[in-house]
Amino acid sequence: MIPAAFDYAAPATVEEALALLAEHGDDAKIIAGGQSLLPVLRLRLNAPEFVIDLGKIDRLRGVREDGDALVIGAMTTHSAVANDPLVAQHAALISKAVATVADAQVRNRGTFGGALAHADPAGDVGAPALALGAEFVIAGQGGATRTVDAADFFVDLFETAIGEDELLTEIRVPKHTGWGAHYEKFVRIAQQWSIVAVAAAVKAEGGTISEARVALTNMGSTPLRATAVEQALQGKPATEDAIREAVGAVADGTNPPTDLNGDADYRKHLAQVLTRRAVLTAAGG
Amino acid sequence: MTVTDDRPAAEIGKDRRRKEDRRLITGSSRYTDNIVLPGMLHLAMVRSPFAHAKITAIDTSEAKQASNVVAVYTAADLDESAGVLINAWPITPDQKAPVHAPLPADRVSFAGEIVAVVVARSAAAARDAAEMVDVDYDELPAALDLKDAVADKVLAHPDLGTNKSALWIFDSKEAGTGGDVEEAISAARSDGVVIEREFRQNRLIPAFMEPRSVVVDPTGEQLTMWSATQVPHIVRFALAATTGVPESKIRVIAPDVGGGFGGKLQVTPEEWLAWWIARQLHKPVKFTETRSESMMAAHHGRDQWQKLTLAATKEGKVTGLKVELTADLGSYVAIVGGGVPVLGAFMYNAIYKIPAYHFACQTVLTNKTWTDAYRGAGRPEATFAIERLMSDLADELGMDPFELREKNWIKHEEFPFTTVAGLEYDSGNYEAATASAKEFFGYDELRAEQARRRDSRDPVQLGIGISTFTEMCGLAPSRVLGSLDYGAGGWEHASVRMLATGKVEVVTGTSAHGQGHETAFSQIIADRLGVPFEDVEVLHGDTQVSVKGLDTYGSRSLVVGGEALVRAADKVVEKAKPVAAHLLEASVDDIEFSAGRFGVKGTDAGLSIQEVAGAVFSAHNLPDGMEPSIDAEATFDPINFNYPHGTHLCAVEVDTETGQIKMRKYTCVDDVGNIINPLIVEGQVHGGLAQGIAQALFEDAVFDERGTLVSGSFVDYLVPSAADLISFDAHHASTPATTNTLGTKGVGEAGTIASTPAVVNAVLDAVRQFGVKDIVMPCSPARVYAAIAAGRAVDTGSASEGADQ
Amino acid sequence: MTKIELTVDGSKVSDDVEPRMLLVQFLREKLGKTGTLIGCDTSNCGACTVHLDGHAVKSCNMLAVQADGSEVTTIEGLADTYDGGELHPMQAAFHECHALQCGFCTPGMIMRSVDLLGENPDPSEQEIREGLEGNLCRCTGYHNIVRAVQTAAAAGKGAQA
């Protein structure tokens, strides 16, 4: 219950934070909302020597529009994202998924960027970001900034494209205004991590799916985009039978875990059922 | 007799809001971990990561050098005054039980066992230094799986030579309470029905919300221990019996205690170590476990295999029941660990007239966390078994499950009824409770909906589960306990003190930890003495105040402790009578006591009992030779157990595509006799239901192949939240108990006992149509889905005919 | 040691704390606010819930240093209840509806329930249940907790009308 001792700084700017990262290297750990980090520290599963708190960097918080994109500051809390009218309008899938993260108290502290950078495959923010083709803005040493596509951002279990001396500053989400969206999350008890979840955004016109975005939570070591399913859905009527057929192969090539909640085959089966339901709901069915 | 207008309304039966609440809702609570004493030192435990290992070396030198560390202890430091943890219920004379020292000498026998203790000036320093203790282990093969363990494949404690701890048998023919079960079974095999099943009772973690905590203050003449315990009196006795400190020098206090459910009726290594270390260092010490420590080291519950054979006629009359139980004790025989299955032994016949009965239980040692009482203790297992069997039998015979039950249960006019297990049930009305439950539930409408969903092949199928139950609670008649080789009696103590100001101080030997004794007991005394509810103060949970008692477990507080209160109060009245007569200048024979007032027959003259108390305090004018006290105490030993019963109905929706279960409706009608406070009774039922439902659907303490507890936190051990449960439709029926003055029955365990089989029967009822006969608890979606898929595969001869087709 | 300044239950406090000290430990051990309780080490149980700048958070799941400059309200600051003062409507509803037994989850449950009604003054039963998903209770089966939140919501509506 008591973390190992560490030194601490709460820089006021991204530049100061990057300088601290450069100085402490491997020994440092960034704390954003801390909702995943603190349990790890309390259980002493990790014991960094230095903790850099991003909580005082105001410019990392907030949601704004930038042309065709919505820009979400990395330190924006889940609650703020879930309740943000711009997100609801232009990236409803993210609103819906983020509203299912953990519980209200955790959403009040936990941050969108922090959860993405933590990259827990059972977390609920990766799949919607991936589905909508988000871009990740990463600040590096010496004022460098680079942008990484969602497809390249998630590298492995708890591993992203963010380098050791870099910081995730914002997430740019292409606007999906007018798309239907649904996040279908499967759990045994409410506050559990997703056993499997499916993020689906659908553009439907006159009962026909013109475009679809689908990504899976906890079906592998990273969130997975179901591009084959997206293609199969294109041009299909938004009916249960048509969707059932189009999503039939959603679990192909996935590598879900086996644990107390079910084995890999069960998860593959769930992925099929949940994808059908997610797409159908997103399509207004 | 004159009834005056100011006669207080009856308190018993009133839904009084609780006296306990204010401190708890305002944050003025006093849980053990809140206590801070001058110079207090903090303990941190070094625990074994291995289920079974030889300790080859412990290096404490670095930890001892760490700043703010005061001491580090290992088993080598302990002496006789450290005591041992006791097993109070050796269920057979030849029971095998390893010695349970607070620290094991050279071998750990479960993952989480304490091997060293660090004492430091702060909890943080203690934890830091604990990480520096270097322990070398030689890992040994561990006895983990219960069925392997009973075959002695690997020994949990090699020096004992076997894992089999005790074999306890009850046979109705031998006991003269019924016939020969083997005869009944073979008769049924040739001309009847035999249902054979093997059920798994999942291992559960009591998961009280307050982690265990202990503070010991060795300063002053008397040693004081505060502990988050259900059993301060038993802790005091056990400390005295094993650590050499006289009982008179020990004060144990259970302050506010955050739940127990049986999980805190233990005497623990943590308490014993804190006690010994405080005495070594002459300083107050505190230890509060983390949740993770609690999950692996506080005792678990259930964990049994039940092999069952039920014999019946083709008409559905049960003729015999054979129960062969294997029960996992974990690595030590806990205080009443061996006795838990024995508490179930008398309940497998439940509410039914079963002519022949045989029960055998083998308790088994393994290298897992020790097990002991968890809400219901033995009785939920028994109820689950028989209620599953009755529903399966009904299914086998194509009979309505209610009709089958009714055919076999004891009719209300047959009470008192002596059962095949040898108990005498005093009262009950199963017909009434069941009829009422069916009506509240909307049974016929739900059956109709079920049929519609079946006909339309709805992916979401409805299931309706039935469970009736009775239980033996109110532990317990001391003679019966003696005959079962239990180490103590089952009486309870109370005293009533009439204070000078008119207030009444009531002391009970029971020890509440959420049950609301301060409120319910005030109601009893207010009625019995005719004093205002507000004037009664109930004291408990401190052995220096409550000098005598046997604490709270087994739904005993009201039916045993409450009766002690009644008797003490009646003695107060009897003692006050001559004083009243003296003051009213009347003959004692003419004094009547009613509604708090001593009156003189045929006159308006009278005195309130509070006025009499004032007169006794001043003692200016008492009858000659009378001692100036009307205080009284009573110790009550029940002559029988107490038998609440009820009928529970559960409807679940099963998503056949995923196996997900959604609870639709839960109705119960519990007969707990006369009710002191309906609000508190309902609360007990609700909480019990949640725990029983959780056993059926969510909770499971799982160990991996090396003996590590996988579900060792609330991340993996699935305690349901509000979002995972529904509002309950809970009602009462009432046939008063005949074995206590108030006619009350225990309610603490009822909900837990009845709900588990009701839920599982409901799940099975939804999926029997697919050929499913059993689903192991907890009925997780994965298991439910697998069962449906397997059933369908058998039905159609094709495994690929999945639900998603 | 890091210096922090914050407001707790209406009083300004400043202290030097180890960066590793959790907010709940600061509240309990440094300020004696023992009304806020610790029930787990994985931030599942919610017993330690307090308000941080008006919203419910788990005080075990943040560092005291992270609360620097913030306003924290604990169960002890919800209403001026010392010396028999009036309860907060949510506290009163918990009492009235018998929404607690052992009381250990209660401070956190009340703090979260107050926040829940702040977000949604007129929640459905399902919204209440889901809104309380981060708070575990082992005694009540939640039945009466849900009733209490409904009662407090109704009282709140009555007060506004």
TrEMBL record, chain A:
The gene is cutM. The keyword Electron transport does not apply. Keywords: FAD, Flavoprotein, Oxidoreductase. This is Carbon-monoxide dehydrogenase medium subunit. The lineage of its organism: Bacteria, Bacillati, Actinomycetota, Actinomycetes, Micrococcales. InterPro entries: CO_DH_flav_C, CO_DH_flav_C_dom_sf, Diverse_Substr_Oxidored, FAD-bd_PCMH, FAD-bd_PCMH-like_sf, FAD-bd_PCMH_sub1, FAD-bd_PCMH_sub2, Mopterin_DH_FAD-bd. PROSITE patterns: FAD_PCMH. GO terms for molecular function: FAD binding; oxidoreductase activity. The keyword NAD does not apply.
From TrEMBL, chain B:
InterPro entries: Ald_Oxase/Xan_DH_a/b, Ald_Oxase/Xan_DH_a/b_sf, Ald_Oxase/xanthine_DH-like, AldOxase/xan_DH_MoCoBD1, AldOxase/xan_DH_MoCoBD2, AldOxase/xan_DH_Mopterin-bd_sf. Residues 1-14 have a biased composition (Basic and acidic residues). SUPFAM superfamilies: CO dehydrogenase molybdoprotein N-domain-like (SSF54665), Molybdenum cofactor-binding domain (SSF56003). Residues 26-141 form the Aldehyde oxidase/xanthine dehydrogenase a/b hammerhead domain. Keywords: Molybdenum, Oxidoreductase. GO terms for molecular function: iron ion binding; oxidoreductase activity. Residues 1-20 are annotated as: Disordered. This is Carbon-monoxide dehydrogenase large subunit. Pfam families: Ald_Xan_dh_C (PF01315), MoCoBD_1 (PF02738), MoCoBD_2 (PF20256).
TrEMBL record, chain C:
One of its GO terms (molecular function) is metal ion binding. The keyword Iron applies. Keywords: 2Fe-2S, Iron, Iron-sulfur, Metal-binding, Oxidoreductase. Pathway: Alkaloid degradation; nicotine degradation. It comes from the Bacteria. SUPFAM superfamilies: 2Fe-2S ferredoxin-like, CO dehydrogenase ISP C-domain like. Residues 2-78 form the 2Fe-2S ferredoxin-type domain. It holds the Pfam family Fer2. PROSITE patterns: 2FE2S_FER_2. This is Carbon-monoxide dehydrogenase small subunit. It comes from Flexivirga endophytica. The gene is coxS.
